[in-house]
Structure prediction request, 635 residues.
Amino acid sequence: MADVLVLEGIRKSFNIGTSVETEVLHGIDLRVRAGEFVAIIGPSGSGKSTLLNIIGLLDRPTSGNLFITGLDVSDLSDAALTGLRGHAIGFVFQHHYLISAFTAGENVMMPMLVDRGRPSPAMERRADELLSLVGLTKWRNNKATNMSGGQQQRVAIARALAMKPALVLADEPTGNLDTASAEAVFALMRSINRDQATSFVIVTHNLSLAQRCDRIVQVVDGQIASG
Amino acid sequence: MTRWLPFEWIAALRFLAEGRLQTGFILGGVSIGVAVIVFMSAMLAGLQANFIRRVLTSQPHIQILPPDEVARPLRAGPGVVEAAIVQRPTQRVISIDQWQRIAAEISGRPDVNMVAPTATGSALAVRGSASRSINVTGMDPALYFQIVRMPDYIVAGEMRLGSDDVIVGTELAKELGASVGDKLNVASAAAEGRSLTITAIFDLGNKGVNGRNAYVALRTAQSLLNLIGGATTIDVTVKDIYAAETIAQDIAAVSPVEADSWIKTNAQFFTAVKAQQTSNTIIRLFVGLSVAFGIAAVLVVSVIQRSKDIGILRAMGARRAQVLRVFLIQGGVLGFAGSAFGSVLGAAALVVWHRYARQADGAELFPLILEPTLFVAAMALATITGVAAGTAPALRAAKLDPVEAIRG
Prediction:
């Protein structure tokens, strides 16, 4: 199966050129195959979030090569990266981060709206489809802020899938949820991964969830210790 | 979600709607600012129009006069020092040299509206044992009344000027005990007197003018003042009243005449008008600036409050330009909506003020002029100001690093 994500010798330094220059990633090599469900674990400050930001094209590595769906992104312009991010990658964050000015349905539509510029019936149908997938059809017209944390996170997952991305990145997706909700959200992601062959890379501290992923990548001190 | 709106508009309107209190307060601020601008502009335009109408409907914009007569002493010759005392000669009532040609030249100018030659001089009006010195103006009514709207000021009789007719002011009529249809003997030092019939009595709103001025046909004045075929002044109106002085200087430069504009002869009034315009402009500028700063302040706060939303939008593929537009639109919408409310508020204030603010005699203080162009201009300017005020916050939003924004 083709690789959705390839990292070759990824390094990342902060405060470059100053006396406090710090390298937080020391040459990361990683491959994620299409349809794979990978957990990244590691202690706080090990560089997991930086790694996720680089994979998500929100940040650029200092050196190394990054391929998303086979495309070398190292030399892409900011605008091209933004475009690729919108189409190829979906994000789920720890704090849900739905846009409070919009309803659940509109939040799910948002990536399509950003991409195409104007709403359309097709977008609404896709949003309905995704809300039904995450079991929130009747919450469609609810303001995001009027929902529980678990529900918001399910809306966020639906939103991440809106553009049919090859890869969904989730940063502590269950970190802010109670055990039951965390379990439900994880099960949802797992089922989507299975049914739609979407690859998932999740950063988590929850070892029991990590153990139920296809592969665990352990990051310690900016290097991959195992996986 | 409104289908026909683009994403940027949808986001901008939703953000404004969500921050209801903030939006309400700034809309209130913009509305009051625009209302003040609209109110001041319309009121001052009305006041000014009123003043100018009063001043300029009873006098020409430019008056062409013959040059002063000067004495030119004969010099003994080069190298001879003379201590000459040159006495100013008396100024006779004389005609403008070749006034027909000069009048034709002036009326040929594209910036001139109307040209009316007049023959003006002093005379004595006698009725029975009463006599008064008067200032006789002889003119062609068809031309002159388009410059000085005498028919508007007639209080008795009818506007008719034959060769034996005269129009006098209320004060003169009172002093001579004369009314419409009565005869008046008018004589000047230069020629024989004539008996004229009063056909109308005017009230120009000024006691001195009403007691001194008398109007006759041009030919009558020419014979009264012994100026056969002559004209002592040429009255001119111009299209742009504020260009009167420049035009007057132009005329004086090319013809052997003196040209006095209303600006020069009413220097004090003109200074007052100018001062009013300047203070009006300054006040409007500062009100406009405070509106702009208000909008900018609210949008800066909004960018900070929404930095996570901006980060999320950027993460899901929103381009910097899209984020920029979301905030520019908010600035423009605040300016436009605020100015729409402000225009209504300003117009309402004008109507109320116009109804209750009266002069001592009960006449309106200023004409109520609700020019649509003023409102359109105010709204266009406020919208542009809103967009301009939104630029700094919008750039800040567009530059936000999504990683930083999401982390908060």
Remarks:
- The CA atoms of residues 246 and 308 of chain B lie 62 Å apart.
- The radius of gyration of chain B is 33 Å.
